[in-house]
Amino acid sequence: MSPGRPAVLFVCLGNICRSPLAEAAFRFEAEKAGLDAEIDSAGTGGWHAGDPPDPRAQATALAAGIDISRYAARKVVPADFRRFTHIVAMDSQNLADLRAMAPADCGAHIAMLLDHVPGREGASIADPYYGGEENFRDTWEDAVVGARALVRIISDGQ
Ligand code: 4NP
Q1: Along the chain (158 residues), what's the average pLDDT of each consecutive run of 10 residues?
Q2: How far is 146 from 108, CA to CA, in rounded Å?
Q3: Does the beta carbon of 129 sit less than 6 angstroms from any atom of ligand 1?
Q4: Is 83 among the residues known to form the active site?
């Protein structure tokens, strides 16, 4: 990977629950660490394209002081695999879907968010969409732990 400005894309299924929370946590942690990066999120599916995050995800982020109400969902596109240096899946299905979608000239490093957290390698972040508020709080905690670890790894690599 050539040096330069990191570009990090967080990916889940719908881009309305987990990946917007991961994007928000990473924006917050990157800012705190002084890491300059392009940051975005997307879904492997396009059903919610243009929608704001799920109201429960918005409330979870807001409880941490972060307003994600203006995020808009979008689907992963082939150009993402060239634009981003890191593509970060929330679960093993997202990871498999991304690997299947990746073009031959994919330059991005593709992994799951919790792969970057010692002791949690290979762990998925469960989809909270059909769950309750506590599932969104768990998602947020995983997003923050993963974001901190990834910020450290990318910062160390520069
Ligand atoms: P996300 O959650 O992948 O964390 O955004 C989901 C949101 C919506 C759907 C599935 C997962 N859905 O099927 O509409």
Answers
A1: 82 98 98 98 98 98 98 98 98 98 96 98 97 97 98 91
A2: 18
A3: yes
A4: no
